Amino acid sequence: MFRGEHLADKKVLLEVTENHLNTGLRGVPVGTCRTSYVTPTEGVHYCGYPISELAQFDPEDIVYLLFHKELPTDEQSSAFRQDLANRAAIPGDLESVLKTLPKFGHPMDWLSIGIHTLGMLETTEDWKEDALNLVARMPRLMGLIFRIREGRENDIPADDTSMNLVDRFVHALDFEGVDKAKMKRVISTYLVLHMDHGGGNLSTFSGKAIASGKATVYSSMAGAMNALSGPLHGRANQSCLEFVLKVGTSDPTEVEAFVRAELEAKRPIFGFGHAVLRAEDPRATAQFELGSEICPDDENFKIVTTLREVAPRVLAENPKISNPNANVDIASGALLHHIGFTDPTYYTTFFGWARVAGIGAQIVDERAVLRNGKGTPIYRPKYIAEAQTLRHIE
Ligand code: NMX
Ligand code: MLT
User: Could you tell me if 354 and 46 are in contact, meaning their C-beta atoms sit under 8 angstroms apart?
Assistant: First the structure.
């Protein structure tokens, strides 16, 4: 049962006026979304369930929800985990390709190329098959990216496809001297919180636009990852931890001085603000709760806790800023750092890993379900010619 049917409310439709032009389609309805919607105060809902109710679920059950639009029963959950395991083996030599990439390249570029490579190794020409195969193969790709970039490319543990998604990544990674149980808990929560965020966020929109020209799921997803890699979108989680490391103190007075100086220098305060939300993002709240439980004394966690108190007050002084509150990126870096991922340049790859599920499910819906299975046509919004352009035409 798909709860929270917002689309019955036709008031969301509006007349497009000149004021909507050149605003990045802000607020302009362009389609329907079957996986999730975002409300300004409760944030994202997956198939009608507010994210605050889902944070503790296993990632596999949330992938099931996004693809099937209902939470699985115990039997459905086990069958789905088996299905993912059956799809998980990488059908070819991904490792050799990754080993040729420049180690100084950004991990998001590796992720995009890795997804492209998976598509070159096997594409089924069935939207859902490809989307689920990709979900099932992501943990190994992620593990290989980390290991090969770090020069730990020998003795990579053989893949064990019977493991769950997070265990398979941690197994490939094979970090020494870390608390693996804590690591699995943080990654699991991270994946669930980041899987989907409505139909119009930049990476999802870009992925669906590419797929509308009938590019494969893999090509569309690689494009979506490129969109996610921008510093105002997914890569804000990297910038946010870099920012936290620069703040370097949890003293409220010093933090406030730092925030003001950043604003003065016209630099964004990472981890705050949102295009749709108008309150603290519940995904941030969930991560603060997790951090208070597992690492209340971690220095970076203490800094983000102070930022959470100080920055909204300072940002609210600028009436142009629609939402001065914490967004999803504020605490995730501190948690990832705490469990052993100390290099923030990797953080957006976790975001990308998670989003593969939501974007994949939305591509399947747009290509094979909407408009009675016919799918939406190729994206082609209208642009209005500017006077200068018209002069050239004449
Ligand atoms: N720090 C400094 N300035 C800000 C911030 C912020 N955190 N948030 C908004 N503004 C500015 C924004 O740049 C814009 O300035 P201008 O008119 O000069 O272009 C003005 O306030 C109005 O922006 P809004 O309408 O409030 O926000 P918009 O929808 O344009 O942008 C973000 C949303 C998320 C891009 C913006 O809030 C931002 O840059 N935040 C910091 C970066 C960040 O944390 N991004 C993560 C978002 C989550 N994600 O995954 O995408
Ligand atoms: C998010 O997860 O917050 C997004 O992808 C950004 C958005 O919704 O625009």
Answer: no
Protein residue whose Cα sits closest to atom 8 of ligand 2: 201
Compute the distance from residue 369 Cα to the ligand 1 centre, in Å.
34
Domains of the chain: 72-233+361-369 (1.10.580.10), 236-338 (1.10.230.10)
From the candidates 274, 281, 337, 338, which is the catalytic residue? 274
Report how far residue 240's alpha carbon sits from residue 218's, in angstroms, rounded to the nearest whole number.
29
Cα separation, 33 vs 54, in Å, equals 19
Cβ 197 under 6 angstroms from ligand 2: yes
Q: Is 171 a catalytic residue?
A: no
Rounded-to-10 torsion of CA 93, 96, 99, 101: -80
Q: What average pLDDT does the structure give for the chain? A: 94
Instruction: Quote the pTM value.
Output: 0.94
pLDDT tens for each residue of 128-154: 999 999 999 999 999 999 999 999 999
Summarised one tens digit per residue, pLDDT across range 329-370 is: 999 999 999 999 999 999 999 999 999 999 999 999 999 999
Best probe residue, ligand 1, of 320, 323, 330 (max atoms within 8 Å of C-beta): 320
